[in-house]
Amino acid sequence: VFITKKNIVISDSTRALVFLNRKFQVTKKIPFHDKTRIHGIAYNEKNNSYFLVNSLQDKITEIDEKGKIISEIIISEKFKKYKSAFHHCNDILIDENSIYVSMFSFSGNHQKNIYDGGIMEFDLETKKYIGCPINNLWMPHSIKKFNGNIHILDSLKGDLRNGDKEVLGTFPGFSRGLDFDGRYYFIGQSKNRN
After folding, report:
1. How far is it, in rounded angstroms, from Cα 71 to Cα 20?
2. Most distant CA pair in the chain, distance
3. pTM for the whole thing?
4. What is the CB-side half-sphere exposure of residue 87 using CA atoms within 13 A?
5. What DSSP character marks residue 4?
6. Which letter does DSSP use for residue 32 in this model?
7. Angle at 162 between CA 158 and CA 163, to 5 degrees
8. Which is it for strands 117-123 and 159-162: parallel, antiparallel or unpaired?
9. How far apart are CA 152 and CA 135, in angstroms?
10. Which of 34-43, 46-55, 141-150 has the lowest mean pLDDT?
11. pLDDT tens column, 82-110
């Protein structure tokens, strides 16, 4: 879910990007291509585009308001070679001139029980890889920025992290879905579907 000044935008992960007004009425849908499984959504105010995390193809797709593809960021060449996703990318944050995307495995080996996950950073304008500012996470989700700091859920451990070092709390379920109202954090809990 992503909220802009006008819309609430939801990914129906296998079918469409759904736009709702403030009364929760559907105002528009942008259909997805087959075999994408869109997880995270971010809105780029600079050029009114949406960045979608395509978890089944290990890439980030930028689209305009009509659904036309503007650019793509390929996480690795593994998908091109093997026609299968290896990194399990999920959530995304645009902050200043950077794109941050969370994933289960930097090396692309989570299917081999190697969970070397965290956040990858890309330049917003050039789309080039910058680095991995937060790593050693186990199935991370929900990248957000609160009070100037990047927060993320280390989902399988149940940790809410402030940056790469501070753990603000540990919770008993698979943690994904995060918000903050200035005083309280709101954290979604579920079971790991895999």
Report:
1. 25
2. 47
3. 0.92
4. 25
5. -
6. P
7. 115
8. unpaired
9. 11
10. 34-43
11. 888 899 999 999 999 999 999 999 999 98
Q: What pLDDT is recorded for position 32?
A: 81
Task: Determine the Cα–Cα distance for residues 53 and 62; give it in Å rounded to an integer.
Answer: 9
DSSP 116: -
Provide the pLDDT confidence category of residue 193 given band limits of 50, 70 and 90: low
Cβ contact 76:83 at 8 Å:
no
The CA-atom distances, in angstroms, between 70 and each of 47, 54, 77, 103, 183 are: 11, 14, 20, 23, 38
Is 71 within 8 Å of 52 (Cβ atoms)?
no
Q: What is the Cα–Cα distance from 30 to 56, expressed in whole angstroms?
A: 18
Q: Is 59 exposed, middle or buried (0-12, 13-18, 19+ CB in 10 A)?
A: buried
Burial class of 172 by CB neighbour count within 10 A (0 to 12, 13 to 18, 19+)? exposed
pLDDT at 33: 74
Q: How confident is the model at residue 177 (pLDDT cuts 50, 70, 90)?
A: very high
What is the side-by-side strand order in the sheet with 16-20?
A: 2-3, 8-12, 16-20, 26-31
